[in-house]
Every structure is written in structure tokens, then in C-alpha cells.
């Protein structure tokens, strides 16, 4: 019996070591992934790439939200409760989207803003998925899905731009 416990312990340790090595390998693969050549905080030109090209450039969570119009789970966002001062950019292409001075605590579990930097910095479109009508927000430069806008926000606009943090990058002021 004692030998069986020892054998099982050794196998478990090997499995944990294998899992850790796999995780380390994944981190190394992700960190050595080719830099996104279309990401720019200054370029205003439209970015037109195929989904296959985007898939090679973007991390999996960003690709899921930005290209497949996914939504991250509520209260998992690193930006949801952040009060740091700075600017939020499109995670796919670097387009300037929101300033932190328009960010507010909406209680929804996603970072929310009461207006974009400028009206032309976001594109609105109808979204009728899941049997409801909403207004989807996307990036004007690369058409990345960012989130949705609702009319239950604070003054002065009364709007709530409810964004996925996976679709955003933040730069401190």
C-alpha cells in the first residue's frame, strides 16, 4: 500500500511538472508572438485584415471579443474598477477611444464611459443578437467590436458605453 501511495505521488508530481512546463511554454509562446504591426496610436489609416491575419496578431481573448464579437464575463475586467488617469485605446489597432475622465462606476461589471473622446472615435451599429436590440460599438479604424452603448448613463450625456476590457489598452497620462 505504501508503495502505491509513493507511485501515485510521483505520477502526480510529474503531471504537475508537465502542466507547469506547458504553462511556461504557452507564456513563452505568447510573449514571443510577433508584435502587431498595425497597432499605432498615431496612424489614422483604416486597417483591413482578414480574420486569419487578425488571429495571428491578437491574443486569444482580444481576438474573441474584437473579431468574433464576444463578451468577457462581468467583473473580470482589470479596467472595471480602475481609477487611473489616462487614455483607453483599441487593443487591436491603437485607435484612441476614451479618456479616463469620462469613466464611471456603472455597477455592471464592465468598464463604462459616458462619452468617447469624439463622436467619430467610435462607430455605432444595430445588434439584434440574443433576441434583443442593442447598439454595438466598434472601432472606426479596424472595425473591432468593443462593446455596447445604452441610454442609462449619467449626465451630461445620459449614455453608458459598456466596453470589454479585452478590446481596450490603457496608457497612463
Explain the overall architecture.
The chain is an alpha+beta fold. The chain has two domains: 1-31; 51-172, Peptide methionine sulfoxide reductase (Metal Binding Protein, Guanine Nucleotide Exchange Factor, Chain A), CATH 2.170.150. Helices cover 25% and strands 22% of the residues. The protein contains three helices and nine strands, in the order αααβββββββββ. It has helices spanning 2-31, 51-57, 60-66; strands spanning 86-90, 96-99, 103-104, 112-113, 123-127, 134-138, 145-150, 160-163, 168-172. A hairpin with a 6-residue loop joins strand 5 and strand 6. The protein is globular and about 40 Å long. It starts with a helix and ends with a strand.
Helix/sheet category: alpha+beta
pLDDT below 50 for ≥5 consecutive residues: which ranges?
1-33
On the 0 to 100 scale, the average pLDDT is 84
Radius of gyration: 20 Å
Q: Give the total of domains.
A: 2
Distance between the termini: 63 Å
Overall body shape:
globular
> In the CATH classification, which architecture of the largest domain applies?
Beta Complex
Count of β-strands: 9
Strand residue content: 15-25%
**Number of helices, counting only DSSP H or I runs of 4 residues or more:** 3
- Give the biggest sheet: 6 strands, antiparallel
Elements, N to C (H/E): HHHEEEEEEEEE
Oligomerization state of this entry?
single chain
Enumerate the strands of the largest sheet in spatial order, edge to edge or round the barrel: 3-4-8-7-6-5
Amino acid at each position: 500500500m505504501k508503495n502505491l501511495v509513493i507511485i501515485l505521488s510521483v505520477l502526480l508530481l510529474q503531471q504537475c511538472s508537465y502542466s507547469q512546463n506547458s504553462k511556461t511554454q504557452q507564456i513563452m509562446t505568447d510573449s514571443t508572438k510577433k508584435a502587431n504591426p498595425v497597432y499605432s496610436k498615431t496612424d489614422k489609416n483604416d486597417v483591413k485584415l482578414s480574420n486569419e491575419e487578425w488571429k495571428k496578431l491578437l491574443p486569444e481573448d482580444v481576438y474573441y471579443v474584437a473579431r468574433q464579437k464576444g463578451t468577457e464575463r462581468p467583473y473580470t475586467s482589470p479596467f472595471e474598477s480602475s481609477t487611473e488617469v489616462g487614455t483607453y485605446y483599441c487593443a487591436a489597432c491603437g485607435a484612441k477611444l476614451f479618456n479616463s475622465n469620462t469613466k464611471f462606476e456603472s455597477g455592471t461589471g464592465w468598464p463604462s464611459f459616458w462619452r468617447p473622446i469624439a463622436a467619430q472615435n467610435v462607430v455605432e451599429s444595430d445588434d439584434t443578437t440574443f433576441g434583443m436590440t442593442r447598439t454595438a460599438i466598434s472601432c472606426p479604424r479596424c472595425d473591432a467590436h468593443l462593446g455596447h452603448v445604452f441610454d442609462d448613463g449619467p449626465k451630461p450625456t445620459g449614455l453608458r458605453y459598456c466596453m470589454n476590457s479585452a478590446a481596450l489598452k490603457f496608457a497612463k497620462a
